[in-house]
Specification:
Layout: H1 8-12, E1 24-27, H2 33-42, E2 50-53, E3 74-80, H3 90-106, E4 110-113, E5 117-120, E6 123-135, E7 138-148, H4 167-171, H5 177-194, H6 200-208, E8 215-220, E9 223-232, E10 238-241, E11 247-250, E12 254-257
Parallel strand pairs: 1-2
Antiparallel strand pairs: 2-3, 3-7, 4-5, 5-6, 6-7, 8-9, 8-12, 9-10, 10-11
Bound molecules: biotin.
Biotin binds near residues 56 and 62.
Length: about 260
Amino acid sequence: MVEDSLSAAAITDGLATRFIGQEISCYPSLPSTNDVAKIRARKGAKEGTVIVAEEQTAGRGRIKRRWLSPRGSIALSMILYPRLAYLPSLIMVASLAVAGSIEQVTNLKAQLKWPNDVLVNGKKVCGILVESGVRGGKVDYAVIGIGVNVNIRLSEYPEITPFATSLSQELGREVSRREMIQSLLVQAEKLYLALPAGDSVFSQWRNRLVTLGKKVQVSSGEATYEGTAESVAADGSLLLRQPDGSLLRIVAGDVTLRQ
Ligand code: BTN
């Protein structure tokens, strides 16, 4: 069993960031860290404030799905105040930071699946939910919610076993969540600060997407599309080459790889 305290003091101790995670609140249990982060952001919390919960009782995923966050997982949300132009890039920042931290701390190879999943050995270990408030063309706040299956026995959650995994399951040993969070916060800050410099974050994200070049089925709202995932645009949307040769831009959806 690794020593795995998730107190604010343990996470900030030696944390090599300027602002992300320097203000941090850890709770034993919350309905959803994103909800608390949104309330704190609306009250003017410092940029980089992070909310962590040992477990969530009403964790939320994309498209109104439920997100399981039992003890042993990471559930955290960070508050940022980006310019409107950078809002679509936050998902790229978060996915790259999670993938980087998995590789740094565990040596497992992490893959990104459009739009926001991080996979290990083809199964989902992390989901990301970015929520924001925008008024009059300006971002009031953005909250990046990150859930990582770290030390979880998937056999206890048969509903997600076919397509999900955990870091401990892939490694055969437990992983320090404190180290994972510290690494994730450092990498997220580096990537976030790199956004004004141009397209480097976008190209890193695009280059890591396992989805590209594959035959896929995409469900978006009520519709389902088939084709080849040809590329992604800088706003994060997927460019799907359909069987009739046309190129379809998909802003939000779920991808199933066909090969
Ligand atoms: C998804 O894959 O659908 C996204 C899952 C996002 C889960 C995280 S856990 C921390 C934060 N709080 C939530 O309620 N959801 C996000």
